[in-house]
Write a structure and sequence with these properties.
It is a single chain. With about 240 residues, the chain is mainly α. Helix content is about 55%, strand content about 5%. It is built from nine helices and three strands, in the order H-H-E-H-H-E-E-H-H-H-H-H. Strands 1-3-2 form a three-stranded antiparallel beta sheet. It is elongated. The chain starts with 7 loop residues before the first helix and ends in a 20-residue tail after the last helix.
Length: about 240
């Protein structure tokens, strides 16, 4: 008699977080291709977790399908391009419910800020270059903030996206705080650089006092028709 296979909790115990993220994307209504899952990840997961590469998504889909957590079907001949769509199975949803509602600590957030690593090494960089990097980061973050606002507008009114909207609103507040922190860091870098050098104006030509002492005072201007030696100030 063959030994019984591993149960669902045993099979899912070693799944990496990326696998759960891909399975979570499949938990929403409808079937999705790997490309569509990548677009969904870029529009939601990227703002608070990360967006796996398309190769990672397909690798996890094959793993999930082998575990019986996902199923796939190829498009029919009526489709202009052959594609494979994936859907979550009942067993996969049960495993995802157990993982999402588990009592195990989710773990601390991991912060890797490449810009702050550059600032930390600021003693090796030109001050103006650092300030330019921070300014670019602020502009980029404002662009990401707009993307989240657009995603929230698309999800508005869709019941299936109630909880993703909460995560996106958190991401919105995080980016607003990121902009505020970056602007404060830019002010710190500007203060560290000191005041800007004032522009020097051309110096006025110095008056030659020695020449004035030799020639004496300038004689009064003689008006036309005025007798020589008369002055408007003489009585």
């Amino acid at each position: 008699m063959a030994a019984p296979g591993p149960t669902s909790p045993q099979r899912s115990a070693g799944l990496p977080p990326t696998a759960w993220a891909v399975l979570g994307l499949l938990s929403f209504p409808g079937e999705r291709t790997g490309y569509e899952l990548k677009k969904w990840a870029d529009a939601s997961l990227r703002h608070f977790y990360w967006s796996p590469a398309i190769s990672q998504i397909y690798a996890e889909l094959r793993r999930l399908e082998a575990l019986g957590y996902a199923t796939s079907r190829r498009s029919g001949p009526e489709e202009p391009r052959t594609k494979r769509s994936y859907a979550i199975t009942a067993e996969g949803r049960a495993a995802l419910v157990g993982w999402a509602g588990g009592v195990r600590d989710a773990g601390p957030p991991v912060l890797k800020h490449p810009l702050l690593l550059r600032v930390w090494l600021g003693h090796l960089a030109a001050p103006g270059h650092l300030r330019a990097l921070v300014s670019e980061h602020i502009a980029h973050t404002r662009g990401e903030l707009k993307e989240i606002h657009d995603a929230l507008a698309r999800a508005d009114g869709q019941e299936a996206w109630t909880h993703p909207q909460i995560a996106l609103r958190w991401s919105c507040r995080r980016l607003e705080a990121e902009i505020e922190l970056a602007e404060a860091m830019l002010a710190d870098l500007t203060e560290l650089a000191g005041p800007a050098e004032p522009e020097h104006a051309e110096p006025e030509p110095a008056m030659r006092t020695d020449q004035a002492e030799i020639t004496g005072p300038t004689p009064p201007v003689q008006l036309p028709g005025q007798p020589s030696g008369d002055s408007p100030t003489q009585g």
